[in-house]
Amino acid sequence: MKKIIQTPNAPAPIGPYNQAVLSGNTLYTSGQIAINPETGELQLGSIQEETQLVMENMKAVLKAADMTFENVVKTSIFISDMNNFAEINKVYGSYFNEDTAPARETVEVANLPKFVNVEISMIAVK
């Protein structure tokens, strides 16, 4: 059985998908980008600011499912330029305990939605 997870504290979906789906004890999130959930507007600044907004959006989705970053078992990070990896990784890493950090892949891609620089999705388990 699946349960749709929605929160006004993260950007609303702009297509035929949901912010996250809970199946049993496993949460599958959609990718988050740097959209301000209050305004619905893209909010690009430095790569650090962009990554922080992505992680804050993800934090809101996790919270809506009664989870935290400690529940995350796998992340996927998509970036438009691998030269930004170190700065993205610094912000991303500040949200996790290094000893219990999730598995992860980081992939450079040609383009991302709205031509952002970073998109992150997660899988979490209660």
UniProtKB/TrEMBL annotation:
Pfam families on file: Ribonuc_L-PSP
InterPro entries noted in UniProt: RidA, RutC-like_sf, YjgF/YER057c/UK114
Family under the similarity heading: Belongs to the RutC family.
Protein name, entry field: RidA family protein
